[in-house]
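Milestone 3.1: sequence recovery, worked example.
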């Protein structure tokens, strides 16, 4: 059982996320506290927990995209989030052909564990679709009204922590199969165990898989920085 003090865990999680977000200065950052304050103003959980929140960022419709691996998502996801594959195959084509009358997302919120992998995927989307996504600036993006905004959330760890401080956000970390609230959160590796509130149960990869996956993430980032094209796949 995780015995971290909730305030200490949240402080460490937010600080760690900010450190990773600095690697992506052209991708607007979004805190879970800010997201919840704007979206969750009344209790959000229906009796059967099937109704997900209408996520908003700066009063604009938002969609939550989980960029993590399948084993991580199988433990839990943010309520209403879709996978990166679902976004690129189902939502992205609609955004590319949208009209002003479409009720499509105006902001795409990417998230992972603590904000690093989601930052990489945000850069990838900005690079591949420069005419679709707002480049740099803030998630507000008032200067380019016709473009979709991208925001990099601080991660599912800070999000889970933030739900403990908002009574209306109770139950927004869910099992993706049953859509029922869960207290289990995949935190990738033991490094981030101190960042998770004691109200949640951390799940981690084995040491070998943690190391193997970490090498893959670093390699992807290096390829981006050296303009190698393999990172686009």
């Amino acid at each position: 059982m995780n015995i971290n003090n909730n305030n200490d865990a949240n402080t460490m999680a937010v600080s760690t996320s900010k450190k990773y977000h600095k690697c992506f200065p052209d991708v607007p950052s979004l805190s879970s506290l800010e997201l919840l304050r704007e979206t969750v103003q009344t209790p959000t959980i229906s009796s059967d927990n099937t109704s997900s929140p209408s996520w908003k960022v700066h009063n604009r419709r938002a969609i939550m995209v989980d960029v993590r691996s399948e084993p991580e998502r199988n433990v839990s996801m943010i309520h209403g989030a879709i996978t990166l594959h679902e976004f690129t195959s189902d939502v992205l084509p609609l955004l590319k052909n949208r009209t002003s009358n479409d009720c499509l997302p105006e902001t795409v919120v990417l998230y992972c564990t603590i904000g690093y992998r989601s930052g990489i995927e945000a850069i990838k989307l900005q690079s591949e679709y420069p005419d679709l996504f707002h480049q740099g600036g803030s998630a507000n993006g008032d200067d380019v009204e016709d473009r979709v905004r991208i925001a990099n959330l601080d991660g599912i760890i800070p999000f889970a922590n933030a739900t403990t401080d908002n009574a209306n956000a109770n139950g927004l970390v869910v099992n993706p199969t049953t859509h029922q609230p869960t207290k289990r959160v995949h935190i990738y590796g033991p490094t981030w165990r101190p960042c998770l509130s004691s109200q949640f149960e951390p799940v981690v990869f084995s040491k070998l898989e943690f190391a193997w996956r970490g090498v893959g993430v670093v390699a992807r980032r290096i390829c981006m920085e050296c303009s190698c094209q393999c990172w686009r796949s």
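The radius of gyration is 17 Å. Confidence is low (pLDDT under 50) at residues 228-233.
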